[in-house]
Specification:
Strand order of the largest sheet: 4-3-7-6-5
Order of helices and strands: HHHEEHHEEHHEEEH
Largest sheet: 5 strands, antiparallel
Distance between the termini: 39 Å
Oligomer: single chain
Number of strands: 7
Low-confidence stretches: 85-96, 101-106
């Protein structure tokens, strides 16, 4: 199903607003927030259509809409040139190789993983994973940041996220992709049956000729635009 330009625009705005506010998005909010030349009734009609087509869903009858996996996928693939290393950028982190643990400042790969993951976690507010397959070394950083997300307020949700990370660690041992950046959203995830999370994975050639993977992990309501820009910028730093 091909969406009209108006439907794409409304969907883009709805996904962006939900990512930003963590609140269901209503027609009246979109009309006021963007000063759209459409009535709330028209926007509401288009939102209903986007629900019918599986891009959005309505948690409660009187509530606004929230993105589905398909809606997030549209946002990533159609709004952001996610598969291109020259895509939309959040701007390079205010650092150089040295700031991210450049080669002169690295005593060993453990120190490097700690430094780079700490910087990336602070910039992305996501949990960061660094994996060196040659050494079977797996490092995670960012629990405090990611647990601030409202999606992880309950014990059950935290348990699900923990299980997801365990599954990811196992899956990374055999992971391979020809793409510079892979983004798995919800049910797309090949690693786990836990389907409430997203993961971005990028392959790098780190200092001292270390090949490895870098990943950002969090709830599906992830700041995709910023995080894609961070991973792309990091790849240029170590190019």
């Amino acid at each position: 199903m091909v969406l009209t330009a108006r439907q794409e625009d409304i969907l883009q705005k709805a996904v962006f607003e939900y990512i930003d506010r963590a609140q269901p998005v209503s027609s009246s909010w979109l009309e006021a927030r963007y000063d759209m030349p459409l009535s709330p009734a028209t926007i509401r009609s288009e939102l209903s259509y986007l629900c019918q087509e599986g891009y959005l869903e309505q948690p409660h009858t009187s509530a606004g809409r929230v993105p589905t996996d398909r809606g997030y996928r549209f946002f990533v693939d159609e709004v952001l040139p996610a598969q291109s290393p020259e895509g939309i950028q959040a701007g390079p982190p205010e650092s150089s190789k040295a700031g991210f643990g450049g080669e002169r400042n690295i005593r060993d790969y453990v120190e490097f993983a700690q430094t780079i993951s700490r910087n990336l976690t602070e910039a992305s507010s996501s949990l960061t994973i660094v994996y060196f397959p040659q050494k079977s070394f797996f490092w995670k950083d960012g629990w405090e940041q990611v647990l601030r997300a409202p999606e992880l307020e309950g014990r059950e949700q935290i348990g699900s996220f923990t299980k997801f990370l365990v599954d990811v660690e196992k899956g990374f041992q055999s992971f391979h992709s020809e793409k510079l950046l892979e983004i798995y959203i919800g049910e797309e995830n090949p690693f786990s049956k836990e389907k409430d999370f997203s993961i971005m994975i990028s392959a790098y050639s780190f200092p001292r000729k270390q090949k490895g993977l870098m990943a950002l992990v969090g709830p599906k309501r992830m700041a995709y635009q910023k995080n894609i820009g961070l991973l792309n910028s990091l790849r240029r730093i170590f190019a």
